[in-house]
Write a structure and sequence with these properties.
It is built from nine helices and no strands. It has 207 residues and is mainly alpha-helical.
């Protein structure tokens, strides 16, 4: 897709004002907001590289990128560090909440910008984005890829995991689960570049 305006500026302004503010104040500390911004960044980048305009709806995908983890707001204490296992225990609930929250926001603030079919597809993408083994459609897989890139990126999202936690995360969440499902060559290339940077970051911690 060559059009630089992938989403209407008003839609994105509302998404940023509401969702990012909510994640900054009520999401997992130092994670949900920068992670979401990184997912959006990589979604925009890949949408401009992938030439399937009839198969991919950038408005839906970018809205899904903003909203996919919104449901984590208020799920955890802002004062206590969250372990990987704690976050996983709320996986299903956070997707359900994210769907409810983005549907409500669209109906209240953005109803004139989304057709009903688009809202349904958006809700579907958000509701399944962490069910990695069940993803089949190109838009489902692209959201998963961008989500993973937003997890790996140490420049856009300063890591919060310890050395041991990162080793567990890379083994179980990236190498075993997400990377094998990558389908877009550009996403695969970026993932390898981000992995190298992440490895260097954690190697430097050992010094």
């Amino acid at each position: 897709m060559k059009d630089t305006q992938l989403i209407h500026p008003y839609i994105e302004r509302v998404l940023r004002q509401i969702i990012l503010k909510d994640l900054a104040n009520k999401g997992r500390p130092r994670w949900d907001k920068p992670h979401t911004e990184a997912v959006v960044y990589w979604m925009k980048y890949l949408l401009k590289k992938i030439n399937h305009p009839k198969l991919l709806n950038p408005k839906i995908l970018l809205t899904a990128a903003y909203a996919h983890d919104w449901g984590y707001a208020n799920l955890f204490s802002q004062k206590t560090p969250i372990s990987i296992d704690q976050a996983r225990s709320q996986k299903d609930l956070h997707m359900k909440k994210s769907v409810e929250m983005i549907e409500r926001l669209i109906y209240q603030r953005l109803s004139g910008y989304f057709a009903q079919a688009e809202v349904l597809r958006l809700a579907h993408l958000v509701s399944v984005h962490d069910f990695i083994n069940k993803l089949q459609d190109e838009d489902e897989l692209l959201l998963m890829e961008c989500d993973a890139l937003g997890m790996l990126d140490v420049e856009l999202v300063p890591p919060t995991l310890s050395l041991l936690e990162n080793e567990h995360f890379m083994r179980t969440s990236i190498y075993q689960k997400r990377l094998p499902r990558f389908t877009h060559d550009q996403a695969k290339k970026i993932a390898q570049e981000l992995i190298k940077k992440r490895e260097k970051f954690y190697q430097d911690l050992k010094k």
